[in-house]
Write a sequence for this structure.
């Protein structure tokens, strides 16, 4: 009896010790995991860190505050770092993007260059600043894609070991780089939370790109409904392969675009630096070109070249840009709309032509611009005002240049008096200048000019005096004719009208660039459907929600369809076909309609499964075609300033001078010398 009781006590003691050991082991494991996550997501920090202190100091300055917040917003979308890390990286990017242009500007101010090259260099510095910031942000984005690709491979490896998704993600954190570990830790936290769906929805709003959203959603679906074997393969692992292939194709496409567009921006900017050397070369070979290059013609051509270079550079950047991320804020325009008079005027413009307003609103939606319609109309008005003012200033400056050239002739043979030395020629030029300035606001005749010359007693010969009076009178008439005329006002208005349509043309251009990716987005929908079609309890509405997460071009239409889904799934899908009549997308919607009619989703999309290899190859070909098409457009745009330089600065002046000389020689020959 005592021995039995002793055995029971021993067993109870062993059980208690086992429970205590298990609890201690569990607590140790929890602490270990916590330390690991903290180690992976929290870098060491120092209270006296220069970058962090610099950020805190700069955000107190108005201009730097707005600039830093704009950079910080982009970084926060890509990284889940704490405030210390994001602040350091923000000020680091700001110092690089502002420091290099500032150094260039300092060197520019130290050089002795004319106003033309100063303006050219300022434009170049602004473009360099924008390029640096884009490169820094794109580098983070590309690095995240590479890290996600590796992370998915690590998750696959650990999933093979124990078949648990959350544990596979946790084990993969240890092998991840810092940036990826931040997102991986967040995903692990979401998948182990009590309210997973709400957490996923919140994460989707801050996810860097669609691939992170797809990975997390796929993990959740398999964790919720269980893995399934399809054609002898794990559905989860197959889906991981699909996501990984999508990432690889995106990385290849970005690499090709970087290669194709690597030098196009430089090609677009170079022509403005070549104008002055071309001037010197042309004048050295044909002195008569000085009248063109230093006169109104040269000024107008330089303005045209500046506008062409800026427009070409902007279009090239828009061609290369990924439109998945886009600025949706128009803070300055929104503040202007809050002014009662401006807001009321814009609303009247919208209501006057409601049909056109609806068309523009639809165009903005298809171009991926989610801004109030009023901001677009206000931008058009501002462009129109700028166009009118620029045109007016050009005419005013042309008249000013012409007046200066009349007072200070560009060519030595402007005073065509034979057998006269340089000193006498300069004295006659000063005489012309004095008389023109004296009588510029008076009504005079040629006889008044002759009387003035006789009073000055500078030309003793009567014949030469008459020739000088005739020359001065013609100059005076030309000088007094240099004023802002009514037809120039009409041309300025026309310039304002042209500028008024620039935002609309840019909107159409953006839409065309977005539509180039339409086929690619449909191919992504195929991949999404292949990933989730085997889940037994998946519904048509769930498929649409997944498509919305990946969509950019079709996002608003799919969202509208989901909102109307409760009032009738078939009718909502029918409206989606009307809203988006693109044929490959319509086929997907028709398959979804078939699934609504109680046909299993697997059968409705059976063609996707059987033709997976074909769609994969077609996707690669479409990406290649897209890159080549963008490259072709980019090259055409980049060489527009170069062609304009050759045409306006070389061919036209040379041809005009050649024709003028030919006419002069012909007149001399016909008059018998």
């Amino acid at each position: 009896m005592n021995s039995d009781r002793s055995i029971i006590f021993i067993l109870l003691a062993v059980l208690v010790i086992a429970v205590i050991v298990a609890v201690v082991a569990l607590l140790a494991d929890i602490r270990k995991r916590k330390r690991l996550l903290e180690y992976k997501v929290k870098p060491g920090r120092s209270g006296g860190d220069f970058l962090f202190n610099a950020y805190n100091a700069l955000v107190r300055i108005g201009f730097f505050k707005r600039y830093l917040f704009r950079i910080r917003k982009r970084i926060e979308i890509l990284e889940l770092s704490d405030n210390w890390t994001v602040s350091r990286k923000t000020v680091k990017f700001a110092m690089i993007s502002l420091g290099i242009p500032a150094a260039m500007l300092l060197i520019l101010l130290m050089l002795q260059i004319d106003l033309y090259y100063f303006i050219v260099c300022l434009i170049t510095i602004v473009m360099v600043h924008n390029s640096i910031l884009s490169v820094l942000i794109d580098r983070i984005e590309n690095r995240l894609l590479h890290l996600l690709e590796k992370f998915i491979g690590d998750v696959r490896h650990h999933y093979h070991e124990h078949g648990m998704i959350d544990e596979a993600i946790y084990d993969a954190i240890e092998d991840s780089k810092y940036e990826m570990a931040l997102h991986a830790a967040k995903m692990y936290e979401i998948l182990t939370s009590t309210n997973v769906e709400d957490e996923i929805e919140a994460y989707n709003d801050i996810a860097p790109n669609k691939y992170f959203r797809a990975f997390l959603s796929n993990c959740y679906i398999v964790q919720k409904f269980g893995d399934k074997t399809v054609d002898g393969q794990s559905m989860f692992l197959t889906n991981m392969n699909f996501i990984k292939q999508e990432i690889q194709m995106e990385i290849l496409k970005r690499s090709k675009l970087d290669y194709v567009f690597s030098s196009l921006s430089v090609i677009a900017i170079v022509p403005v630096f070549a104008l002055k050397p071309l001037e010197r070369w042309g004048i050295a070979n044909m002195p008569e070109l000085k009248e063109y290059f230093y006169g109104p013609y040269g000024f107008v051509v330089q303005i045209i070249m500046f506008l062409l270079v800026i427009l070409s550079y902007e279009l090239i950047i828009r061609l290369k840009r990924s439109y998945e991320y886009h600025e949706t804020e128009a803070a300055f325009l929104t503040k202007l709309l809050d002014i009662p008079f401006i807001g009321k005027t814009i609303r009247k413009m919208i209501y006057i032509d409601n049909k056109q307003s609806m068309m523009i609103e639809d165009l903005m939606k298809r171009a991926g611009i989610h801004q109030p319609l009023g901001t677009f109309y206000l931008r058009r008005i501002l462009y129109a005002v700028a166009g009118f003012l620029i045109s007016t200033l050009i005419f005013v400056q042309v008249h000013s240049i012409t007046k200066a050239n009349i007072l200070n002739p560009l060519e030595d043979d402007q005073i065509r008096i034979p057998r006269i030395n340089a000193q006498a020629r300069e004295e006659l030029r000063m005489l012309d200048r004095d008389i023109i300035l004296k009588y510029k606001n008076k009504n005079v005749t040629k006889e008044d000019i002759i009387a003035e010359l006789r009073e000055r007693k500078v030309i003793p010969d009567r014949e030469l005096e008459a020739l000088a009076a005739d020359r001065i009178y013609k100059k005076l008439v030309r000088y007094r004719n240099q004023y802002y005329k009514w037809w120039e006002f009409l041309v300025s208005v026309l310039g304002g009208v042209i500028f008024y349509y620039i935002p609309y043309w840019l909107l159409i251009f953006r839409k065309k660039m977005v539509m180039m990716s339409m086929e690619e987005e449909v191919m992504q929908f195929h991949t999404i459907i292949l990933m989730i079609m085997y889940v037994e309890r998946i519904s048509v509405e769930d498929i649409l929600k997944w498509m919305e997460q990946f969509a950019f071009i079709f996002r608003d239409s799919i969202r509208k369809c989901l909102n109307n889904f409760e009032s009738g799934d078939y009718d909502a899908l029918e409206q989606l076909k009307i809203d988006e009549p693109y044929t490959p997308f319509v086929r997907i919607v028709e398959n979804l309609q078939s699934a609504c009619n109680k046909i299993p989703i697997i059968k409705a999309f059976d063609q996707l499964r059987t033709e997976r290899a074909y769609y994969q190859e077609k996707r690669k070909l479409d990406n290649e075609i897209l890159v080549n098409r963008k490259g072709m457009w980019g090259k055409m745009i980049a060489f527009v300033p170069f062609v304009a330089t050759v045409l306006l600065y070389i061919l036209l002046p040379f041809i005009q001078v050649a024709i003028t000389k030919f006419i002069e020689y012909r007149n001399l020959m016909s008059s018998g010398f």
